[in-house]
Amino acid sequence: MRCARRCPNLFGGGSNQRPSRAVARGAKPGCMPFLDEAKIHVRSGTGGRGCISFRREKFRPKGGPDGGDGGRGGDVVIEASSQVQSLLDYSYKKHFQAGSGKHGEGNDRHGADGEDLVLRVPVGTLVRDAQSGEVLADLTHAGQRVVVAKGGHGGKGNARFATPTRQAPRFSTPPGTGEERWLLLELKLMADVGLVGLPNVGKSSLLARVSSARPKIASYPFTTLNPHLGVVELGDAERMVMADLPGLVEGAHKGVGLGLRFLRHVERTRLLLYVLDLDPSRERGPLEEFQILRHEVQMYQPSLLQRPCLVALNKVDLPGASLRAREIRKSLGKESISCYEISALTGQGVEELLGEIFMRLKNMPVEKGEEREGGLGG
Ligand SMILES: Nc1nc2c(ncn2[C@@H]2O[C@H](COP(=O)(O)OP(=O)(O)OP(=O)(O)O)[C@@H](O)[C@H]2O)c(=O)[nH]1
Ligand SMILES: [Mg+2]
Fold it and tell me: How far is CA 163 from CA 108, 172, 284, in A?
């Protein structure tokens, strides 16, 4: 089992601007803060006015109408890009406007079209209308785009309206004003496997062991405040993306701890890996932890409970840990949920767990548009 490189998502890149204090909360110095929600206002360009003009030329009396059309206003487009890691850029600037069309001119000159404005967002971004809540697009692969505000059309110049019976039209049509709206951008990470567990159980340690991602690891709860992705490789042929999420606590659905908002990042994962703690000094046993986690997941989205899952019983290296595993093994056996005793610290049992994960993912149908960047290959 060869463990692999860091996932391109979430790390580095992004903006040169200074992070605001709000979004930089929890970020280490020199580490790009992560933002998975943003509200922005977009406005497309207005069209240019059509021109009313008549040809005035020596030796050409009554030269006729020659007013050109106005240019089209630019659209606002949102495009998914694998070069963008989070929605951080949209916390600095909230208002975006595409270019307006230029006005038409005499001598049959048409105004130039306004420039489209392309806003790049991370792959996995859901675009909603902020007012109605309607989903405008779910951008699940790089290069996918959606026009969120259509530019206004250009006004028609008077040259367009000349007919044999109306040779000197003195009017043009008005241009389109374009559209504006508030949008909600919501990033849901694209990973194959999501790690779900209480704080301090060793989720980040597991990700660090199996990939080259380097999330912070420490012996206190809520070390991880933002999701982290890592690419795990099996030989040269297969790989998958694993997501380490901040810990869940009992009552998270009522806002305790960091709440449930990070669970949105497991919505798209194909497999949930519940990480439970076998440390005998912990007040709660792994079975109770598992029940808490499942309850919180259910409170977030009941259908997530139907998602294929595995259980990793971590810290088996501790003395007396295996004894703690007995009760939960019995209970999971009844539900036919596979569980593995592992140690993220020593690596014990990790290879078997990864083997099972790869096998499960391989046997799962990949829905169209669901392929992960750097995801399961082979
Ligand atoms: N003995 C032992 N300690 C472990 C093992 N895995 C993790 N730890 C320790 O458990 C503590 C918590 O590990 P983390 O990986 O930060 O736990 P986490 O689940 O990511 O915690 P949060 O980010 O706070 O949710 C650290 O002190 C680790 O060294 C293990 O397999 N055995
Ligand atoms: Mg962690």
Answer: 16, 14, 87
Domain ranges of the chain: 36-187, 193-363
Amino acid present at 370: E
Q: What CATH number labels 193-363?
A: 3.40.50.300
Q: Say if strands 238-244 and 339-341 run parallel, antiparallel, or are unpaired.
A: unpaired
Q: pTM for this one?
A: 0.78
| C-alpha triplet 352, 353, 355: angle, nearest 5° | 65
Could you report the per-residue pLDDT of 288-316, keeping only the tens digit for each? 999 999 999 999 999 999 999 999 999 99
State the pairing for strand pair 3-6/228-234. antiparallel
In testing the pocket of ligand 1, which one of 205, 248, 340 has its CB within 8 Å of the most ligand atoms?
205
Question: What CA–CA distance (Å, rounded) separates 110 from 175?
Answer: 13
> Is 280 touching ligand 1 by the criterion CB < 6 Å?
no
pLDDT tens by residue, 244-253? 999 999 888 8
Closest CA to 244 of 292, 159, 314: 314
